[in-house]
UniProtKB/TrEMBL annotation:
Annotated InterPro entries: Bmt2/SAMTOR, SAM-dependent_MTases_sf
Top-rank taxon, per record: Eukaryota
Binding-site list for S-adenosyl-L-methionine: 148, 166
Functional summary from the UniProt entry: S-adenosyl-L-methionine-binding protein that acts as an inhibitor of mTORC1 signaling. Acts as a sensor of S-adenosyl-L-methionine to signal methionine sufficiency to mTORC1. Probably also acts as a S-adenosyl-L-methionine-dependent methyltransferase.
Annotated EC: 2.1.1.-
Protein name as annotated: S-adenosylmethionine sensor upstream of mTORC1
Keywords: Methyltransferase, S-adenosyl-L-methionine, Transferase
PANTHER family membership: S-ADENOSYLMETHIONINE SENSOR UPSTREAM OF MTORC1 (PTHR21008:SF0), S-ADENOSYLMETHIONINE SENSOR UPSTREAM OF MTORC1-RELATED (PTHR21008)
Family designation: Belongs to the BMT2 family.
Length: 344
């Protein structure tokens, strides 16, 4: 019994070490930006620090495969992405949305002034129509891009043809790539891209990605890693570029607060991604995370203004609660100092 208790304590201590590595990495990146350092220089320095990247990669893999898989009482991130993708492509969800698009077109023709507005959204890709896929095409294997993957949990799932990317891959199923700055090439060059992704060379580099190619892009616990709100938004814009028409961007971001504490922030995320050309089709709040699914829509998509679509088209940032923590901490300190002075 004592031995079992000791093992449990040892696992908890190891988990705390890994969590501390993750938190310190994120905090250090945000601190450097808050000090006024140039983002590109901060990011370049971070990406060239192999020791820190590998330490982070090991910590993330251990937490994801050991601690979080057994301790978390919420949804499993990988299973949620898998189930939603299959439901969307194989069980009729996409067809339902396309039928709604046709109905919305009818409503728009009758009522162009009040409830509906037609695009373009400022950042929608004009090449969308050339890459449009038919709703009645059955996808045998869903082309999935897992960004910030670490260890590629989708590699054993037969439903997916997966490309996994990370700054510091944890195994040979993941390719080394900085998604923020990777080159996007025309979809016609996808055939040149595919052989590189079948390479068995450990941690092979991916230097370019094809446009309008993937049917799903997964950002699982990725955006909170990026210390700049505008760069987070740019990563989503790049996801739009590599997605095929009607493709899915699945975003999971951590938040252990209660259901409504950051609801306004998530509404801003919805608006910011609409500015790129994404329609939010699913949102749910777990005990520890937000789960979101966005669909890549065409340049002439008709937005329903009753749901807030396109109200703030200038928004190009994605804030997370941690962006405000230093400011909040500073305010708390000021209040405490004021109380002390009043008592004195």
């Amino acid at each position: 019994m004592q031995q079992g208790k000791a093992q449990t304590m040892a696992k908890k201590d190891q988990k705390d070490v890994h969590v501390d590595i993750i938190r310190k990495t994120h905090k250090n990146l945000r601190r450097k930006l808050a000090n006024g350092d140039d983002f590109d220089q901060v990011w370049k320095s971070h990406c060239s620090d192999d020791r820190a990247l590998n330490e982070y990669s090991v910590a993330m893999k251990q937490l994801a495969t050991n601690a979080w898989s057994t301790d978390c009482d919420g949804r499993d991130r990988t299973e949620w992405c898998k189930e939603f993708s299959i439901d969307y492509y194989s069980h009729g969800k996409l067809q339902e949305l396309l039928k709604k698009d046709k109905r919305r077109q009818t409503y728009y023709q009758k009522d162009q002034q009040s409830h509906f507005v037609r695009g373009p959204t400022p950042n929608t890709d004009s090449s969308f129509d050339a890459a449009r896929i038919s709703a009645d095409v059955v996808v045998d294997k869903i082309k999935l891009l897992d960004v910030g993957s670490c260890y590629n949990p989708y590699s054993e799932m037969p439903e997916f043809e997966t490309v996994a990317l990370d700054l510091a891959p944890a195994n040979q199923n993941v390719f080394k790539c900085d998604f923020l700055y990777v080159e996007i090439v025309e979809a016609s060059n996808a055939n040149a891209f595919l052989p590189n992704c079948k390479s068995t060379e450990h941690n092979s580099n991916v230097t370019f990605l094809p446009s309008n190619y993937f049917q799903v892009v997964v950002f699982s616990l990725l955006l909170s890693y990026i210390p700049c709100p505008h760069k987070r938004w740019l990563m989503c814009k790049k996801a739009y570029q590599v997605l095929a028409a009607n493709g899915l961007l699945l975003i999971i971001t951590p938040d252990s607060s209660h259901q409504n504490r950051h609801a306004a922030l998530m509404v801003k995320w919805k608006t910011a991604l609409e500015n790129i050309g994404f329609q939010r089709i699913k949102y749910c709040k777990d005990r520890h995370m937000h789960f979101m699914a966005f669909r890549k829509v065409p340049n002439d998509f008709i937005w329903d203004k009753r749901k807030g679509g396109t109200d703030s088209l200038s928004m190009d940032v994605l804030n997370i609660p941690q962006d405000f923590q230093e400011m909040e901490a500073s305010s708390v300190d000021e209040i405490e100092n004021l109380r002390k002075s009043e008592r004195d």
